[in-house]
Amino acid sequence: MKESFSQRSRIYHEALPKLLSLIDGEWDPVLRMASFSSLLFHACEWVSWCGFYRREGRELVVGPYVGKPACVRIPFNRGVCGDAASRGKPCIVSDVHAFDEHIACDPESRSELVIPVFGLDGEIEGVLDLDSMELAAFSAEDAAVLTQWIETVFPRGGVAIRK
Ligand code: SME
Fold first, then answer.
1. pLDDT band for position 152 (50/70/90)?
2. Which of 103, 110, 114, 133 has most ligand 1 atoms within 8 Å of CB, for mutation?
3. What phi and psi values does residue 75 have, to the nearest 5 degrees?
């Protein structure tokens, strides 16, 4: 049975301090992305893939992630990742099969949430991508919580994830 958002909120609330303690004093963005992905993946059983794509010119290139092997390069304006990156806003897809632009790395994936990561100048540095095997696994509330996580772990001007 799907948990309520308040149950989910508690899971997020308990997981963030663990992540912050894991990366305390560590400023290497790869270390931060790897820890973020692993912690979120293992805390959230509705997540089947969790990781980062980093902007490299006109492409998004896969960074640290947890889950099945994924597409390594995505054109900047393609897919769910490209939609969030090019609009600079989270993209929540309740049913990936109904989203024409979806790039299927795992045929079992059913829904997806992608959140942009910004640099100091407001440029997109990359995205956080979450997949789920459940339909409609993500809401605007998940996007809001994880946007705050990103702003905490990758402060603009503090930790740049772009290569
Ligand atoms: N589905 C994504 C591609 C990346 S994977 O989900 C890991 C997209 O449409 O951009």
1. very high
2. 103
3. -55, 145
